[in-house]
Amino acid sequence: MTQLKPRRTVEAAGAAERERLLSLHHYEFAARERGFRLIGGIDEVGRGPLAGPVVAACVVIEENLNLPGLDDSKRVPAKKREQLAAQITDQAASWAIGEADVAEIDVHNIYQATLVAMKRALDALAIAPQYLIADAMHIHGFTGEQLALIKGDSLSATVAAASILAKVHRDRILAKLDAQFPAYGFAHHKGYATPEHLAALRRLGPCEHHRRSFAPVRASLTDERSPVLFPLNIP
Q1: Which of 97, 114, 195, 220 is disulfide-compatible with 201, CB 3.0–4.6 A?
Q2: Average pLDDT over residues 7-22
Q3: Residue 114, Cβ neighbours under 10 Å: how many?
Q4: 142/184 Cα distance (integer angstroms)
């Protein structure tokens, strides 16, 4: 038999979550007090993995996001992230995704590729923000005022929302890659350097979606591999 929580406990939990969400909008409130109406948050996902693109998302709001459970994507379970992503796109004034692919990462380095993905997300917005909150990065080319907020994805509602959209989008990409290259386990580790992934790299070498500029991938390169591989010459 399922035991119901006392009503006061449920009400207290709801009140605590509402208070947390208000606190999460602190930087958005501060921007509004200065006269900004359209406030954007931008974040990226996928700087650390050995495979797949780096993905950025930008979320622009006019009003608070009324989304219980909204938080840094790393703290939100996968199923809840999917639910929140749908709600974010419904409540936001505007939102967009930007990507930088593996070739761009290998040519420019991951930091510069991340900036490219963020710029693409900004350029794709139907409504541009007047004020932009970024997770510890300064976005060159954005003409409005911006704030580089350290740990922004856990301190700002719009940055948290952007991190969730980026994470959901990238996870879907890696799930599709897993269907093409099931031996690597992309759907499970999302390209990160887990023991499973590193073992697959040692056994098979990299596929075309691996970042050859990353040391573990570069170390696994060889000329004698399975036909599913696409080795490149690395200087």
Answers
A1: 220
A2: 83
A3: 22
A4: 38
